[in-house]
From TrEMBL:
Domain of life: Bacteria
Pfam family, one: ABC_export
Keyword match rRNA processing: no
Annotated protein name in UniProt: ABC exporter
Amino acid sequence: MQAIMYLIKRAYINKIKRAFKSIPSAILTVLGVVGFLFVFISSFKMKKAPFQSASSETIIAAVVLLIGVLLYNSFLSRDTGILTMADANFLFTGPFEKRQVLLYLLVSVAPASLMIGFFMCFYLPFLMGPALSFPKYIITLVIISLFLGVVFLSYYYIYIVDSEHTGFRKKSKTVFWAFIGVLAVIFAVMLFNNNFELRITVQKYFGSSWYNWVPLFGWTKWAISSLLGGNMLTGFIPPVCLLLASNALLGILLYNVKADFYEKTLEDSVSLQKIMDDIKTSGKADSLAFSKVKKRAVSVKFRTGASAIYSKQMLESRKMGVLSNYRELLIGLFYVGFGLIFGLNFNFVFTMVSFGALSMSLNDSWHRDFKKPYVFLIPENSFNKVIYSVLPGLVKTIINGSISITVAAIAYKLSPSAWSSYILVFLSFALLFVFAEVFTYRIIGSSSNAMVVTMLRMLFVIATCVPAFIILIIISVLSNGVPNLTQIAICMLAVNMVFSVLLAYLSKGIFEQSELME
């Protein structure tokens, strides 16, 4: 047990050391942490309009359900592994018994759940106002961590049993989606009975007493909403006991599992290590790393030259699952529904949809081609390689984002001219955002600390948006008035397209040196 605790402790100490391995990395790490804490503390000091209890309950329920579905789908759709290569080699070659390895997994769940839970709860003070005080926030964080603990432990158990009884994970995924399907059918029936009033249906759905007893998702919502409402005896204690019992039961099952999982875990640790390396070097891992490429026949027209990169990415994309290909669309529709339920204006919803789509576009697999030596051998100029490498992801982002904006425009009853203007604005920033991201790879490379890369990337992307706004100000001064929405959209599209082409041209050297990257 002492060796297991030492291994976990050293893993987190080494992560902190890597963040301070150089002076720029240390400075940016400190600035990032200080800024993060400042925003977090300010969220409790800012004066915010109070939400009704039903709204707080809906927020908690929606966030828990969304995160839970995304995590389970990611875990059950691909063998991402449960141990990194270093941990697997150490545990499997050292003087450790099987139960000691399982104990390491059990103990490591607590810090991982707490860290992810903190990021899940980070925005709750902004959304829920004074209903969430700091002491209640700490208790909420513990409840969310218990929720995540059940998710992680159940996945570890399914993964290990599946290593010996092939097909167990697939059956578990079927059961999970059947469970989600039942919840969806109930929601559809309630929506019909409420004359398709989305806001009323959502509040009744998540506020119903029956939803409190929905395993895991309902328990977590029940515990937090009871905490916020002050119902401790009959509302807070029962679901917390259920979450604790679930963690304990899964922990016992995992600790006593008999399956031989060493070979499969060691094999999958290679793919997990690649994900960890991507995060270390570029601050993120792409969608291909977390999505299972299915073995099925797909139709793709293979091209020659630089467009061969496009053909390869399209082939990989069509072999991935629906959630992997349309995650921007699903998140965008979630933001639209969120805005409708809480009465947010269209501009705010448009901003959330655009930011969600653009930020998720950076997790497309196009950045993998920047590190592959074979692209250097393609008989084509580097500018064309840059264009074709980002084209599949860019088109997908534009389509998914445009569909979400169109749904929002219909729901908010926008005029056709206003809708087309917002589409043009989104298109312009999609182009600029992606090529600004490409340029960061050109000037930063892939050997910097993840914190440094992420911070510089964010600053550079923000800086590339400045020229369009400057030109808008100049037009406003010359025309002695504020341009209308259509003029703003056309101006942004023209300026951002010019800068996107310039950034693509300046980034062409990324392929001229690609033979040295790996």
